[in-house]
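Table S7 (text form). Paired inputs.
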Amino acid sequence: MKTIAKLTSGIAIAGLAALIGHVPAQAGTFVYVSNAEDGDIGVYSVQADGSLKVGEHAKAAKVVMPMAVSPDKRFLYAAARSKPYTVYVYSIDRNTGSLKPLSTSPLAESFPYISLDRTGRYLFGASYSANLISLNAVKPDGSVSPKPLQVIPVGRNAHSIRIDGSNKFVFVPTLGSDEVFQFTFDAEKGRLASNTPAVVLMKPGQGPRHFVTSNDNRFVYLLAELTGTVATFALDSKTGLLTEVSSISGLPPDTKLVPGAPRGPAVPGGPPPRNTDNDIWASDLHLAPNGKFLYVAERTGSTLATFSVDSATGKLAYLGSTVTEKQPRGFAIDPKGKFLVVSGEKSDTISAYRIDEANGGLTLIGKYPAGKDANWVEIVSFD
């Protein structure tokens, strides 16, 4: 009897071990960084303490920069700003974070910014050099239709394009003409139309660049590249129109930086490029998922500024700045609001920070190898 009991026990243990061996790996959180000069996308997995484990690189093309993740987290989209202008589509492995190339499609122009609507059925693009935006359909398999549904001229140097939380209104800041274009969006027809009024005028020399929308869709926070200020706009949920509420500087009080000017390629036979060593050159902004804090990257000083957010009024209060990777072009916050990852165009590393959920403070967790000209950062979590 003892022999039979031991045998039965052994079979049970072996069966349990086999069963455990077939349990799929626990899904986690993954970081993606586009490396413009290398022409690829770095993949990192986030560990329990917020540190990063370096993974594989997915091939794209030179000057791969902006990225976007589908709302269902199945696909990653990356746009290359070198000719032929192309969007690369990858499927995301929810267990390993690895990227599998799915398709490529032509884009209307060189886009420094791409985004998706809330359904994931449409891809928006904004072109700095061609002063236009485009709209492409996205197929159920994640691939992008090669022919744009719309290509619309806007003001000079369109720098971003995003839709609001209702999926009805789209905004486009144009850095060179100090405007924010306002559109309505019909997701059934896949059509953008100018709202009335069509634009919001900013103060001259602001250089509106990137923006984010509050979780409750009541406010839009707009970053000015040339002054480093963040403007708060109230968003009318019925009309989709913006009204400026307040504006605040994202620079340390003792900064020596001065307002910058729009940048572009050198013109043959034109004047020599002016010295920009002391120019304000803000790049990116993001809200913490809890809506209590907003962060802004500035490239010349290589800093991340932290603001507190008044949820009732939308107004911001400057809390302080953290020196980070050299010339930070992009950063992202994980969906739980615990960690922030930033890239630097002039760095050979990326940095991960722990976010203090009480005061928004950033504590460096570690630095990790990056490719050349590290740009855009996306974080996807399956936890």
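Next pair, protein 2 of 2.
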Amino acid sequence: MLRRFWAMLSSPYPYESSAASALSYGASCGLFVFVFFSVFEPFGFNFMAPAPRRLLFAGYGLVTGLAIVANDRLLPLLWPRFFREENWSLLRQILFMSWVTLVIGLGCHLLTVLIFRGQGLLAPSLPQIVLFTFFIAVFPITIINLANHARLLRRNARVVQETNRRLAAPAQPPPPAGSGAAPCVELVAENDRDTLRVAMSDLLYIQAEENYVQVHFKGEKPGRALLRSSLTRIERQLRPFHPRLFRCHRACIVNLAQVARADGNAQGLKLTLKDDAAVIPVARRYVPEFRRAIREL
């Protein structure tokens, strides 16, 4: 039982950090804290005068929002190895959220001391407020993340099953000889002079490499080629070939006709190619579109 629980905590969990998501999540949590304290008035706050009580509750909401945003934006910069997406797990997610909760408790304690002193009241002690905050939040944090982990696993398992079933179906027969030239993909670099032509049937995947893209292909002379371009610019050039050439990650476009098998976890999907050893990730936010693309092949 303990081994199974530890395996679940160690399993991959999606980690996506952006300013917009941090602000949205921080604002939502801050509003929730303000409404919670305003409605229930726990810990005897109902004995305070209305004006400082409302100010304190609004301050709790503000502290919550600021703590969430600050930790989400600053900690990955200070400790980038810990926050790598490929290393992120359910346990790290719970630990990170528990740390944020402790920071919120410390901030709420400082705010409580300031307001209580201004009213001539005796403020609760630091351990009281921090422990109250931690124990109120740690169980919902754990339950919410466990539930979200299970939901993502179930969803991705369904996508994997459907994808592998469609990949195992008999392929469409090739067009008869003489019916026209095989389609080719032409990629143009940023300077509008350097170009690369690859037969659609030979193209494997395209990967971002800083200011370049690396095009991987098979054929008589398999290999890879570099073009100076952003992946977004290349993606625009490949729109006529969508959904077969699919943007599956912020750093990768894959030829879905070259996929042999899909596997998945809570972070997203992994695609194994037929003629290459590379394993291509499908990021969590691309999974719904990937499912539609597989259905259209």
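The helical segments are 2-10, 19-40, 50-78, 90-118, 126-168, 231-237, 287-296.
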